[in-house]
Design a protein that fits this description.
With 158 residues, the chain is mainly alpha-helical. It is built from six helices and no strands. Helix 1 packs antiparallel against helix 2 and helix 3 runs antiparallel to helix 4.
Length: 158
Amino acid sequence: MKLNNTIKLIIAIAVSELAGVIGSFFTTSAISTWYAGIVKPALNPPAWIFGPVWTALFALMGIAAFLVWKKGLDRRDVKIALGIFISQLILNTLWSIIFFGLHSPGGALIEIIFLWFAILFTIIEFAKIYKPAAWLLAPYILWVSFAAYLNYMIWALN
């Protein structure tokens, strides 16, 4: 069955946002309990900012994935790039589980390094196929870099 581009775009954004929804199950309950009680660095944004930022980032990820998918799943490079993309989505969700669900800043710090490199590899592979798709992931890797700093500081302070 051949999907039209509108359906592909909706699927790509929905899959990306689903990663955020799954992660939020672990995040939401921990925000007012465990996370509220730990020492955070001075640059830590207020908790309410994370939801809108992540929602926007997941939407950009979905659009980027759509732009690559649109080039054709019959292409080997597209399949590889989207496979790496799915891997980084899984790692993104795992970070929330480890940090908020397991209350393990140390474990999450190790995991976010793998996530960061998976995002970098996704950007590299997307750039080979369609550069604007790669650029849509720039805010994501910047935010995850900042999140890695926050994760490190929370681990160090606690």
